[in-house]
Amino acid sequence: MLVMRLMFSGPGIINDMIEKIGLPRIDWLTEPLNAKIVLVLINLWLGAPYFMALMTSILTNISRDLYESADIDGATGFHKFFHITLPLVFYSTAPLIIMSFAYNFNNFMLIYAVTDGGPVNPEYRYAGHTDLLISWIYKMTLDQQQYHMASVVTILIFLMIAPIVAYSFTRTRSFKEEDLIQ
């Protein structure tokens, strides 16, 4: 993350390459929209290997017999994908995707290491343009000593996220089948 911060900073290598092709330097981390785009790109870059390894292992564990049976029944590639591959991949990955959602909702380290919540947003109290709720709480406690406000926001975050995650997790097939085994 720190390397990416240096790459996208004003004198960074990304701006050097942009300048070499004749375009003006871009304020990647000081313009609000650009900073948000950079954070999304970095998060995709950091998360892609995990999900590629996950998907590869799941796809290699799908039995070839299912596809052979589908071929015998005359299924097209479209039908095989939507009736065999996709359901089996979602069955295996649904709990992990839900956990990744909860993790990314509070992905403090990316924000802190790359933009520190900046650029500054005068419309929000103690929060910058790229702050998440968790980085905003961090700033309220360590920078502003607003412990009472930070604790209220933390409780509200939990009350919003916990029911969504619990409901989503209980709706997955893997959770339902685990209940049946016991």
Brief synopsis:
This protein has 9 helices and no strands. The chain is mostly helical and 182 residues long.
Structure write-up:
Helix 7 (133-143) packs antiparallel against helix 8. The chain is built from nine helices and no strands. The chain has helices at residues 2-8, 13-20, 32-60, 64-72, 77-105, 108-114, 133-143, 147-170, 173-181. The radius of gyration is 22 Å and the shape is flat. By secondary structure, it is mostly helical. The mean pLDDT is 88.
- How helical, in percent, are the residues? over 70%
Shape: flat
Order of helices and strands: HHHHHHHHH
What proportion strand?
under 5%
Distance from first to last alpha carbon: 43 Å
Secondary structure tally: strands: 0
Overall structural class, as computed from helix and strand content, comes to mainly alpha
Quick one: biggest sheet? none
Mean pLDDT equals 88
- Taking pLDDT < 50 over at least 5 consecutive residues as the criterion, the unreliable ranges are none
Number of helices: 9
Rounded to an integer, what's the Rg over CA atoms?
22 Å
